[in-house]
């Protein structure tokens, strides 16, 4: 009985989490949000992996919200659906907030397309390797995202990125999903990958 009670509450919590508008950041500046559900500060970035915050949203509803810096500069003002994910990063032109993925998996077709988002402060040049081999070199600017279509992935649903300088990223680039490319303070020259949800909207949204 205790097991089923625990499972019941976990399912409730999981459903509640999926209904949030989700915000991730690698921005060095303090950030705030305002919405109908309230206002407050986003969880601060610590210099390591992207940091998660959420704005509570009823399932099936859309919520208007605003993201600002401490001095009142508006980074985003608009409406987000439940399970929608946004990313905030530093760029040479200042902080940028972009809609990047969906936090909920519910009937999406994965296909062979994947999305990359550059959350570093510099352009990233890389080639994608799939079952047909390594493709042409391409560049992704800070704060920019790109959808790429590959042939059948190397194994399961994974692709490999080959960066200038010889670094490879193998474990986080998946078909149908978003991978955020970032660096941290401990190893600023190494590009890390962080998987943040699905690039296609869930059914019913």
Describe this structure as you would to a colleague.
With about 200 residues, the chain is mainly beta. It has one domain (about 1-200). It has one helix and 17 strands. The protein has one helix at about 1-20, and strands at about 20-25, 30-35, 40, 50-55, 60-70, 75-80, 85-90, 95-100, 115-120, 125-130, 135, 140, 145-150, 160-165, 170-175, 175-180, 190-200. Strand 2 and strand 3 form a beta hairpin.
What number of domains?
1
Mean pLDDT: 86
Tally the helices: what do you get?
A: 1
What is the β-strand count?
17
Q: What is the CA-based Rg, rounded? A: 18 Å
- Principal-axes geometry comes out as globular
Condensed summary:
The chain has one helix spanning 2-18, and strands spanning 21-25, 31-35, 38-41, 51-55, 62-69, 74-81, 84-91, 94-102, 113-118, 124-130, 133-134, 138-140, 145-149, 158-163, 168-174, 177-182, 192-198. The protein is mainly beta. The chain has one domain.
Topology:
Blueprint: H1 2-18, E1 21-25, E2 31-35, E3 38-41, E4 51-55, E5 62-69, E6 74-81, E7 84-91, E8 94-102, E9 113-118, E10 124-130, E11 133-134, E12 138-140, E13 145-149, E14 158-163, E15 168-174, E16 177-182, E17 192-198
Parallel strand pairs: 1-7, 9-16
Antiparallel strand pairs: 1-4, 2-3, 2-5, 5-6, 7-8, 9-13, 10-11, 10-12, 10-14, 14-15, 16-17
List keywords for this structure.
disordered N terminus; 1 helix; five-stranded antiparallel sheet; mainly beta; 205 residues; 17 strands; globular
């Amino acid at each position: 009985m205790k097991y089923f009670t625990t499972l019941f509450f976990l399912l409730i919590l999981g459903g509640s989490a999926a209904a949030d508008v989700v915000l991730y950041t690698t921005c060095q500046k303090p950030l705030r949000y305002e919405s109908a559900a309230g206002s407050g500060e986003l969880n601060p970035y610590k210099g390591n992996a992207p940091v998660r915050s959420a704005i509570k949203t009823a399932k099936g509803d859309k919520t208007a919200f605003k993201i600002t810096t401490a001095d009142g500069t508006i980074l985003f003002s608009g409406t987000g659906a439940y399970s929608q994910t946004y990313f905030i990063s530093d760029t040479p032109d200042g902080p940028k907030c972009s809609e990047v993925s969906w936090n909920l998996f519910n009937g999406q077709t994965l296909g062979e397309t994947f999305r990359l988002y550059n959350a570093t402060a510099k352009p990233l040049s890389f080639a994608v390797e799939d079952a047909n081999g390594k493709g042409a070199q391409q560049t992704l600017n800070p704060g920019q995202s790109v959808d790429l279509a590959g042939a059948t992935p190397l194994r399961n649903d994974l692709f490999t990125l080959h960066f200038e300088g010889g670094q490879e990223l193998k474990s986080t680039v998946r078909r149908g999903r978003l991978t955020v490319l970032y660096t941290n303070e401990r190893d600023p020259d190494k590009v890390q990958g962080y998987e943040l949800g699905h690039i296609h909207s869930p059914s019913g949204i």
